[in-house]
Design goal:
This protein has helices spanning 3-10, 27-32, 35-47, 49-69, 73-83, 89-101, 106-117, 126-138, 142-155, 162-175, 178-187, 197-210, 213-223, 231-238, 244-256, 263-275, 279-291, 298-310, 314-326, 333-345, 349-361, 368-380, 384-397, 403-416, 419-432, 437-450, 454-466, 473-485, 489-500, 508-513. The protein has 526 residues and is mainly α.
């Protein structure tokens, strides 16, 4: 069977129902085909799975490169048409994921999203839609976000979900006040199919993560009469408290409302007690869970391990890793990270390294968080050699650094004036799509300017802008002054023109206050 035809059978372009995103085999084939024929079809399908997967990967790479390199929307459309790639939901999801994690150009991503959205009978998946919202939010393109929400609401009213609400509010809350965040939340009443407790929970989770628990508590009390709080509501409010008294208050209120706590609720109490160095109370909660036949999970023990480290008992925390197994709970990477952190805090790096080796021996891959625990120690001891060796180990094992890793390394490079190392890290970021260009570039550009490397800083600026990220005004002003002094007028003119693409600098607060008005959603689109 032809590959393109088979892909269309397995992944339909559109079925306006809850199952339209799910690969299916037609009911006609299932009802009318003999058993032997079905078996033959199954063997044929599965025997070609490996080859098909390889083709899909190639198609994803092809489309991703088209989206990343397109010079205009017209060029993007023409390149996609000439590629011959069938743009299925699955492929689009994978491309959008690549764009997100490679910190791709948000305008090119939006052009690709809109192009596919305009195809007759096509509907985006919730994943691709929410990913698009995240990409725009990360670049603070709030006007485009609201416009996209309105457009998608008109086309598919069920696509705007509580998850979408949380993504948008999360980006707004990062740069705006609680008041503006709540006002933005109210706008969703016209956008989501049901403005219910799930949306309320999305707001509370956003405030807990981006603002403070006190802000979340105040908003909860002011809006709780408009919604019906559920178990998830209280679990959100219980998480993250530094005050055991506040957490206990919500725990009591939950039970007064007849809502029984679950393992997540108890984990929140263990966490707040552990962070407050009240280890005995944390152990009592564990015992109470077992009495109620609620089995503590890996999160329960991880919080306890962190608390033992805070009270200066890293060895006892390591023993918890062994005790967990006796209760049928096996430690994961996060549990090991908590134990490793304790030894790093105690400046016992050899013990920390042994635990990291133990992780690997048990088949657990160290994460960027694991490596950052060591990067932090090496940074404060100004140990560039061990930091660089650790970074090389990360690359060898295929673990991509995150922004924190890049910042520890880049600040060390600046301290010790290591230009080549800084450029190698930067090139790795550009090629593999990890880390924040904006944060890392500020430090790296300072290093390059200090060392008079104007050609290199120009190249880095261009790479950054090609990815859709604008260098900070502080960095660009310094580069501008140095280029003027060096008579590099052509290079400066080129950078200035490319900076102009991003528009004039404005305050984020003003941009969010003046977001586009949501029109009457019942009227037909213009």
């Amino acid at each position: 069977m032809n590959h393109r035809v088979r892909m269309m059978i397995m992944k339909p372009l559109s079925l306006r129902s809850s199952s339209r995103y799910v690969p299916f085999i037609s009911t006609l084939a299932l009802n009318s085909t003999p058993v032997n024929s079905i078996s033959t079809f199954s063997r044929l399908y599965w025997s070609e799975t490996v080859a098909e997967t390889a083709v899909v990967k190639d198609d994803v790479e092809t489309v991703f490169r088209i989206v990343s390199s397109a010079s205009s929307t017209r060029n993007l459309k023409e390149s996609l048409k000439s590629s011959g790639v069938f743009l299925s939901n699955d492929l689009i999801d994978k491309v959008m994921k690549r764009v997100r994690f490679s910190h791709g150009n948000p305008f090119q991503a939006l052009a690709f999203f809109n192009y596919t959205n305009k195809r007759k009978g096509f509907y985006h998946t919730p994943f691709s839609f929410d990913t698009m919202l995240y990409i725009l939010g990360r670049s603070r393109r709030f006007n485009e976000i609201w416009e996209l929400l309105v457009e998608m609401r008109r086309k598919d009213r069920y696509l705007v979900s509580p998850r979408s609400v949380q993504i948008v509010l999360g980006r707004i809350a990062k740069v705006c006040s609680v008041k503006l965040t709540v006002e933005s939340f109210r706008k969703f009443k016209k956008l989501v199919p049901e403005f219910d407790t799930a949306c309320f929970n999305a707001l509370l989770r956003t405030l807990c993560q981006e603002k403070s628990m006190r802000d979340a508590r105040n908003v909860y009390h002011s809006l709780k009469h408009n919604f019906r709080p559920d178990l998830r509501t209280f679990n959100i409010l219980l998480s993250g408290w530094k005050s055991a008294e506040e957490a206990e208050g919500f725990f009591d209120e939950m039970r007064e409302m007849g809502i029984e706590p679950d393992v997540v609720s108890y984990n929140c109490l263990i966490d707040v007690y552990s962070k407050g160095r009240e280890i005995e109370k944390a152990y009592k909660v564990l015992e109470k869970m077992r009495e109620k036949e609620i089995s503590p999970d890996v999160i329960s023990y991880t919080s306890l391990i962190g608390g033992l480290g805070l009270v200066g008992q890293p060895d006892k925390a390591r023993d918890v890793l062994k005790e967990m197994k006796e209760y049928g709970c096996h430690p994961d990477a996060a549990a090991y990270n908590a134990a490793i952190r304790n030894f790093c805090i105690a400046n016992r790096l050899r013990d920390a390294e042994k635990l990291m080796d133990e992780m690997v021996a048990k088949g657990l891959n160290p994460t960027a968080t694991t490596y950052n625990l060591f990067f932090r120690c090496f940074y404060w001891s100004n140990d560039l050699g061990r930091s660089w060796s650790l970074y090389q180990r990360m690359k060898k094992t295929g673990c991509l650094p995150n922004t924190q890793s890049c910042m520890f390394l880049t600040r060390l490079f600046r301290k010790q004036e290591k230009v080549e190392m800084g450029l190698e890290l930067w090139n790795d970021m550009v090629e593999n799509g990890f880390g924040s260009y904006i944060l890392v570039s500020d430090v790296l550009f300072d290093l390059l300017c200090d060392m008079g490397k104007l050609v290199e800083v120009e190249n880095c600026c261009l790479q950054m802008m090609e990815k859709g990220h604008k260098p900070s005004n502080v960095s660009f002003r310094r580069i501008k002054v140095l280029m003027e002094l060096a008579n590099k007028h052509d290079a400066l003119q080129n950078l200035t023109e490319k900076m102009a693409i991003f528009g004039p600098s404005t305050q984020v607060q003003e941009r969010v206050e003046n977001v586009v008005e949501i029109p009457d959603l019942e009227s037909p689109p213009c």
